[in-house]
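re the bet — no i am not wrong, look at it urself. input seq straight from the record:
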Amino acid sequence: MAAKSDIDPGATRSEVFDAVYARERAPMLRVAYLIVGSTDVAEDLVHDSFVELRRRWDRVDNPGGYLRRTVVNQCLTWRRRRGLEEAHLERLRHDRTAASVDAPGEPLWVLLHVLPVRQRTALVLTYYLDLSSDDAADYMNCRPSTVRSLVHRGVAALKEEFR
């Protein structure tokens, strides 16, 4: 990987960055894909790495090396987080199947886990935090009628799930 100085010395800062981007994007996408196994995730991580490179541009002498290190670190962090998420979801699945729904003291989050995130959020804001539809809508960045609909569907889904 070449340094910034290997690019046309008369180029502007933006032109140098664009040249580095053009040269490094495809190899970094391949590296990220091989680590994470997903094209979409690889594209996100490489994009984030270029954003980080741009933020530190004036302090980086070897953009290719910096970018490679950043991409690998981003990928490893993503894999660690993904592993933790999968382990947590597996524990939730195990807890849910091991405990009867009628069992006293079953954690509420295990019951709510069967719902999509927006329905779960609407239920928590409405019933746990005792917010009005208007207030919950402000938090969720949607209309109050959307919150009411999400709550209605969430309650219906819970009733159906635990019959």
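see?? The chain is about 75% helix and 0% strand. told u. also Residues 100-104 have pLDDT under 50 and may be disordered. so pay up
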